[in-house]
Amino acid sequence: MYQSGALGMLLMTAPGEHLFDFNCIGSQCDTPINISVSIIPFEEMIASFSTGTLTFITEPSDNFFFAIDPFGQLAETGWGLYPTFQFLVWQDQWFTFMTKLIQKINDHPPDTVVVSVFENAFLQGKDGITKNLTIPNGYNRMELDLSLSCPGTRDGDCAMWDRVLNLFVCCEGLEQQCGQELGRWITPFRRRIGRWLTDVSALLPLVAGRFCSLNMKTDAWAMPWMPSLSVRFYNAPEDLFPVYIQPLFNGGTFDKSYNTKYQPILFTVPSGIKKVILAATITGHGSDDQQCAEFCPTTHVFMANGANYSVSFNDAGTPLGCANRVLDGVVPNEHGTWLYGRDGWCDGLQVDPLIFDITSVIAFDKQNSVNYRGLFQGKDPNPQHDPGVIIMNSYLVYFK
Fold first, then answer.
1. Per-residue model confidence (pLDDT) at position 21
2. Count of CB atoms situated within 10 Å of the CB of 24
3. Residue 67: DSSP 8-state
4. Torsions phi, psi of 346, nearest 5?
5. Tens digit of pLDDT for each residue in 291-300?
6. How many of the other CB atoms lie within 10 Å of CB of 240?
7. What is the gyration radius of the CA atoms in the chain, in angstroms?
8. What is the distance of C-alpha 261 from the center of its chain?
9. pLDDT, average across residues 83-92
C-alpha cells in the first residue's frame, strides 16, 4: 500500500468478528510500516461509504496497568508502546523467568558461599561505588547475582536511556591486571525490576583467594541506580578448576583500522593443565552509516593454531530480537526501543561471557598461537562517518 502512494490504511473486521491484534509474522516483521495503519470493528454505515475523509491523529492516553506477580505482590507491567496485549504477554514471560531464576538459586548446593558486595547502594557519578573484601578460594563456580532498582517507588522514577554497567576488579598480588572487567550489564530504560545471575566462573583466577577491590560504575552523567550485588561460590563436582588466566585482546573503534592492531599472541601451556578455553565478553555500540555497532550484525573470529572459533550477532537490528529474549531475562516493556535486537546485548540484561573450548587444537608440549578479527558483512569494517565501538575483553583460561 505504501508503494502505491497510500498515506494510511484503515482495516475493518468482518460483520460479527471481534477486533484482533494487527501483528506481523516471521519475516514480515523485518519490513517497517511507513504509513499509519489501524483497525476498527465493523460499522455498516462506514462500510457503505464510497468516498470520505480519514484523519489519523496522535493522542496521548493513559498507559498504566498492574499485575500480581508469582509471589503474590502487586507489580507494574511497564510501558505498552503499541496497543497490543503482547506487552502483557512479555510481562508474564518475565514473571516466568523470575520464578525459574529464584528456583535455580534455591537449588544451589547447601554449602554455597554467598558474599554480599552491595545492598541497595546509591550509584551515580564518575567514581561509581567500591567494596573491598577477601574472595573465597577453593571453588570452581562463581556467579554474579545482581538486582537493579532505583530511587523512588515507581518505574518512572528510574533512569532514562540504556547504559553499560561494569564491575571492575583490582586484587592484591595481581596489580598488573587491575581494571579487568568481572561483569557487564546493560541497564533497562525506566524499569526497576531487573535481576540476573551471570556465570563468570572462567574469571575465577582473577580474584580467587585474594583481597580485592570491586568497583561498579556506569556513565558519570547517568541518573542514579541502586544495585544489590552478591557473588555466589560453589563446587560442581564434575568440573575442573580454573587456575590461570591470560588476558588477550580488547576492542576499540570499529573502523577500517580496527583489525590492524591485532597480532598473533604466542603462548605455552603450564604444566598439569587438562583444559584450555577462550573466554570473551563482546558488545557493539554506536551508530555509523551502517548503524554499527549497536544495530548491525558483527562477527568476531578467534583463531587458535589455525582453527576458527567465531560468534555472529545476527539478531542485531531485528524488530523483536530482544523482545524474544524476555524468557532469558530481558526486562520487558521498557521505554525506548527495547524490543530491537542489538549487537551482543539487550536493554535490561546481563552480558554473558562467550566460552570456546579450544583444548582439542592446543599443543601441550610446544608453542601455540591465537589471533582475532572483528568483521562486518564478512569483511573489515569501513564506515564513512561516526564509527561505532566494540567493547571486548578476552582471555585464555587454564583448568586443572
1. 67
2. 13
3. E
4. -140, 150
5. 999 999 999 9
6. 13
7. 24
8. 27
9. 91
User: What region does 173 belong to: left with phi over 0, alpha with psi -120 to 50, or beta?
Assistant: left
Answer whether 191's CB lies under 8 Å from 158's CB: yes
Task: Please state the pTM of the whole predicted model.
Answer: 0.87
Give the DSSP letter string of 120-179.
S--B-STT-EEEEEEPP-S-SEEEEEEEEE-SSSSGGGSPSS--EEEEEEEETT-GGGTT
Burial group, residue 189, by CB count within 10 angstroms (0-12, 13-18, 19+): buried
Euclidean distance between CA atoms 274 and 219, whole angstroms: 40
CA distance 166 to 176: 19
Number of H helices, E strands in the chain: 2, 21
| pLDDT tens-digit readout, 238-273 | 889 999 999 999 999 999 999 999 999 999 999 999
Of 60-74, 123-137, 184-198, 307-321, which gets the smallest average pLDDT?
A: 60-74
- Cα–Cα–Cα angle for 96, 69, 329, rounded to 5 degrees: 35
Give yes or no for a contact between 320 and 339, defined as CB atoms under 8 angstroms apart: yes
Using CA atoms, how far apart are residues 141 and 399, in angstroms rounded to an integer? Answer: 12
The letter for the amino acid at 100 is K
Count of other CB atoms within 10 angstroms of residue 150: 24
